[in-house]
Design a protein that fits this description.
Blueprint lengths: L7 E2 L1 H14 L4 H16 L10 H10 L9 E5 L3 E5 L5 H19 L1 E9 L9 H5 L4 E7 L21 E5 L6 E5 L6 H10 L8 E2 L5 E2 L12 E2 L4 H23 L12 E8 L7 H17 L14 H13 L1 E2 L4 H12 L8
Parallel strand pairs: 3-4
Antiparallel strand pairs: 1-12, 2-3, 4-11, 5-6, 5-11, 6-7, 8-9, 8-10
Helix pairs in contact: 1-2, 2-4
């Protein structure tokens, strides 16, 4: 949970401020509101490298033209259950929110719906999209990669090839949604950059140096020649994370028909949104009966000596979110100075702490 000494901010004020900054930078009002909401959701859940920490880079991308603030995606192919879009470098949070709603509507009628997106811009915190769909009684899977960037080496290799390639999923239980949001690498680019800036090594091997030696030193990622992020599983089981990362490449860039083979430039994402509706499978009641049984079995499982009680994935994030909505969101110390500087530059006052 957040440090009690950290100042807290009103989430609604942060959303309004971020939306105003995006609008002032040329983003259409509806897109600005959605992007602001998704970024603040990341901070509410505690994913603070992918929340408002991305506000500055997004504004820079708008200014450079790498992110487009207006327009619509191009539909490249469509069936009643599956679509492929060219995101045209539009804001990733807006594209993913729209794709999730489209896939949700298809799933309600046909049992499943999917949207593959090529050339989206960065999509922020994947967990931020999950409750909206799970609360409809549906299951959502979300996968993402960035074909213009490389930071993870394949298992047994030492040269960067793909990105952390996160996998997220959310599903309903009788007591609320279960959610996972995990990278297929031990850590992420953003956390590595933060730890380097703070002079804090990882407490475990999270990277490989340029020679392929495991290390917790984030500086090796920025060295010349550079190191790489270690696949999920680390030295003992990184083959599993590397395989998952390659699967994400296939289900995002390859499925959308545009990826590393095209040598794209800029910052962005290839995305797959998949929604399934239990009502069209074994039935929603039966689904909740099973997920409820599993949830209770997890919580009733005896904890390891000295450890915390088992919990469902996402429970801690949802508890943080509830606390932040009630008491204000505690921002990472690196974020408020950026908000203040960006606000001054745009003539828009940044929210004050509560």
């Amino acid at each position: 949970m957040p440090d009690e000494t950290m100042p807290r901010y009103d989430p609604a004020a942060l959303r309004g401020f971020a939306a105003a900054l995006f609008a002032a930078a040329g983003m259409e009002a509806e897109k600005a509101a959605v992007v602001a909401e998704v970024l603040v959701e990341g901070d509410l859940m505690g994913h603070d490298t992918h929340g408002l920490a991305q506000l500055g880079p997004y504004l820079d991308a708008l200014a450079s033209g790498d992110m487009r603030g207006s327009g619509e995606p191009e539909t490249l192919s469509a069936t009643p259950v599956a679509e492929t879009w060219d995101g045209r470098k539009l804001p990733g949070p807006w594209l993913v929110r729209r794709a999730a709603d489209r896939a949700s509507a298809a799933a309600e009628g046909f049992g499943l719906g999917a949207v593959a997106i090529r050339r989206s811009h960065h999509i922020g915190c994947l967990a931020a999209y999950l409750p909206r769909i799970a609360e409809r009684g549906q299951v959502m899977l979300l996968l993402s990669s960035d074909p213009a960037t490389a930071s993870v080496a394949p298992w047994g290799g030492i040269r960067r090839l793909f990105t952390p390639n996160p996998i997220a999923a959310g599903w309903p239980t009788p007591s609320g949604p279960a959610m996972l949001d995990v990278s297929t690498s031990v850590t992420t680019n953003a956390m590595t950059a933060r730890r380097r800036a703070e002079g804090r090594p990882f407490p475990h091997p999270a990277l490989l140096d340029a020679a392929g030696r495991p290390t917790g030193d984030p500086a090796v990622f920025f060295a010349d020649p550079p190191g790489s992020l270690m696949p999920l599983g680390g030295p003992a089981a990184g083959h599993k994370g590397a395989a998952l990362g390659l699967m994400v490449e296939a289900l995002t860039s390859a499925l959308a028909g545009h990826g590393r083979a095209d040598a794209p430039g800029g910052w962005g994402a290839s995305v797959l949104v998949l929604v399934l509706d239990p009502a069209r499978f074994g039935g929603r009641e039966a689904f909740l009966r099973e997920t409820g049984w599993m949830a209770e079995a997890v919580r009733a499982n005896p904890p390891a000596p000295g450890g915390e009680a088992p919990r469902l994935p996402g429970e801690r994030a949802l508890a943080r979110r509830a606390e932040a909505l009630a008491q204000g969101v505690a921002l990472h110390p690196s974020i408020p100075p950026v908000l203040e500087a960006r606000g001054r530059a745009a003539g828009i006052p940044a929210p004050a702490p509560l």
